[in-house]
Write a structure and sequence with these properties.
Largest sheet: 7 strands, mixed
Number of helices: 6
Strand content: 25-35%
Distance between the termini: 25 Å
CATH class of the domain at 4-117 and 149-157 and 184-206: Alpha Beta
Radius of gyration: 17 Å
Order of helices and strands: EEHEHEHEHEHEEHEE
Structural class: alpha/beta
Helix content: 25-40%
C-alpha cells in the first residue's frame, strides 16, 4: 500500500531540536514572530548544555530543555525521555535544526511526518557529514539545501523543498557553506509554513505542494 499523509491545517505547536549555534532556529523563530507561520515555538531542546541556540531561545523568552545523554543507559532510553517531553507539550511538529544526534528508529516512527530536517546538500546526494568537502572533492557544479521529512534512514526521508546553490571554482568549504546557509534560512521556514497551511501531501516517496 502506498504511503499517504497530508499535513494539518491548524495553528501548530513547534519544537526545535538543536546542538549548536541555532541559526536555523532563529530563521524559524523570526518567521513565526512575523506571522508567516501559523504556529508557535513551544520548546527548544538540545543534547548540548552549552549550545548557543539554547541561549538565544532563552533570551527570547522561549522554554528550553537540555537532557544529558550520558545520564541514560542507551540511545533508546534517551529518545524515550525526549519523546515524553515532546508529548507532554503537545507538539505537532519537530524541526531538527543542526541536531547532531542520530535518532533511534522508534523515535522516528513515533513522529513520522511530524518531524523535519534541513540538510546542506541536494539530497539524495551527499547525505551525512562533511557535505561541502564532499561536494568540492566530487567537483559538482551545483549544491544546495534540502528540507525533508525524517525517517530512520539518515537524510533519506521524503523531500519537501530544495534550493540550488552554484559551486564556484574558487569555493572553499567555508564560502560554500555560507551561501548554502542563506538558502537554508529561506526554505526551512517556508516548509514549516506549508506544513501548517495543510499544503504538504506525501504520496509514496514524493511530497506534493498543494495549491
Amino acid at each position: 500500500m502506498t504511503e499517504y499523509f497530508r499535513s494539518p491545517k491548524k495553528r501548530g505547536r513547534i519544537a526545535v531540536f538543536l546542538s549548536g549555534r541555532g541559526s536555523n532556529f532563529l530563521a524559524i523563530y523570526e518567521a513565526v514572530k512575523a506571522g508567516k507561520i501559523n504556529g508557535d515555538i513551544v520548546l527548544v531542546f538540545s543534547n548540548k548544555k552549552e549550545a548557543r541556540g539554547l541561549q538565544l531561545a532563552q533570551e527570547r523568552g522561549l522554554e528550553t530543555l537540555y537532557l544529558n545523554p550520558k545520564e541514560f543507559p542507551s540511545r533508546e532510553a534517551y529518545d524515550e525521555q525526549v519523546a515524553a517531553e515532546v508529548k507532554k507539550r503537545k507538539v505537532d511538529l519537530i524541526c531538527l535544526a543542526g541536531y547532531m544526534r542520530i535518532l533511534t528508529p522508534g523515535f522516528c516512527e513515533e513522529f513520522k511526518y511530524r518531524m523535519m530536517n534541513i540538510h546542506p546538500a541536494l539530497l539524495p546526494a551527499f547525505p551525512g557529514l562533511h557535505v561541502q568537502k564532499k561536494a568540492l572533492e566530487w567537483g559538482v557544479r551545483y549544491s544546495g539545501a534540502t528540507v525533508h521529512f525524517v525517517t530512520p534512514e539518515v537524510d533519506m526521508g521524503p523531500i519537501i523543498l530544495q534550493a540550488v546553490v552554484p559551486v564556484k571554482q574558487d569555493d572553499t568549504e567555508e564560502t560554500l557553506s555560507d551561501r548554502i546557509l542563506q538558502e537554508e534560512h529561506r526554505i526551512y521556514p517556508e516548509a514549516v509554513r506549508l506544513y501548517f497551511e495543510g499544503r504538504l501531501e506525501v504520496r509514496g516517496r514524493r511530497v506534493f505542494i498543494l495549491e
